[in-house]
Amino acid sequence: MKRQPSIDIVRGIVMIIMALDHVRDLMHVDSITQSPTDLTTTSPLLFFTRFVTHLCAPTFVFLAGTSVYLSLQNKNNLSKTRTFLLKRGLWLLVLEFTIVNFGLFFDIGFHSILFEVIATIGFGFIILSLLLKIRSQTLGFIGLFILFFHNLLPLIPFSENSIIKTVSKPFLSPTVFPFSGRAFIMGYPPIPWLGIMLVGFATGQFFELAEEKRKILFTKIGLSALALFTIIRFVNIYGDPALWTTQKNAAFSFLSFMNVTKYPPSLLFCLVTLGIMFLLLAFAEKLPIRIQKVALVYGKVPLFYFVVHFYVIHILTLLMLFTQGFSFSQFETGTFGRPKGMKSGFPLWTIYLIWIFVVALLYKPCQWYGKYKAENQHWWLKYI
C-alpha cells in the first residue's frame, strides 16, 4: 500500500498549529498566571488561540495508530512490526523523559518530569504491539468503548484509598508523583489516549478505499462526530466533567459550550477534535497545491519537527527575558525560565508573529531532513 499524502498533509497542518500553542505557553504575557480557557479572564481570541490547538494531540495519536496499520499491511510481517513497535515505543518514552523534557524546561536537574504526548504515543505503541493479532475491527470497538465510557470511571464510588483507585488513577487522570525534591507529572493519562490510537489503527483499513469513496466516508464520519458532540453537549449531562453554563453574553456562553476537557481527553473533546480531523482528511488532497506542499514538508518529519521546535521556542523565550531586562539569576525552573511574580512576555499579536517566524525558520531544516530520510536507509532514521 503506497504512502497516503492526506495523512502527512493533515499531520503537517496540525504541527504548524501546534507551534502556536507552544509559543503562547512559553512567551505570552499572561501564560504563567492565567489560563486561556478561564472564562473569567480570557478573551474570545485568546480562548480560540488555545482551542484550535486542541486539534493537535488527538490527531497525532490517532494518525500514529493509522500509520501502524498501514505499515503492517505494507510489511505483511506481524513479528517484525511488533518488534519495531516495541522498540519505537520504548525509544519514545526515553526521548520524552530526556531530550523533550530538557527542551521544555532547560532544567539540567530535571525537577519536573512530564509524561506528555510523545510518551503517551510510546505507551500506545507498546500496548498495540501486544495486540496486533486481534482483528482491527475489534481493536476499533475497544478504542470506541474507552472513548465513550472512560468518563464514567470517576463516578464509581471507590474508596479514596482503595487499591483499584490508587492503581488506576494515573492511567485515567492527571496525577503528580513527588520524589526526591522532584515531581513526575502524568499530564497525558495513557488509557484515554490509547483509545484514540486504537480507533486510529482500525481506521487504517479505510485508506484501502478509492480516494472518492474515502472522501465521502470521512466526511460523513466527521459531520456525524460533530453532530453527536453538539447533541451530547447541549443535553449537558454526560461527556465532559465541565458542564457548560450561561455566561454574561452569547459569545461567552458559546465559549463555555466549546470549553471541553483535554486532561484527560473527554468524550466531547474527542468528538469535536476528531470530527474536525476527519473533515481535514477528507479534503486534504483538495487543498491548494501550495498548502499541500508546505504541510507535507512538516508532516513527513513529525518527530524531528516536534523536538527541534521546542528548543527554538525556548531559546527565543530566554532571549525575550534577557531583552526585557531579566538576569539569568532570576530565571525559575518549572516556568520555562519566566520569573515568578514579575511581568514578562509578549502580547497576543506578537505571539502570532513569533509563531509564523518559528514555523518559517524550521521549513528548510525539515525539508532537508525529509529529503535525507527519503534518500538514506540508516536504521536510526526509522526512529526520528
TrEMBL record:
The keyword RNA-binding does not apply. Keywords: Membrane, Transmembrane, Transmembrane helix. InterPro entries: HGSNAT_cat (IPR012429). The chain crosses the membrane at residues 51-72, 84-106, 112-132, 139-159, 179-204, 216-235, 263-283, 303-326, 346-363. Coiled coil: none annotated. Residues 3-221 form the Heparan-alpha-glucosaminide N-acetyltransferase catalytic domain. The keyword Transmembrane helix applies. This is DUF1624 domain-containing protein. It comes from Flavobacterium quisquiliarum.
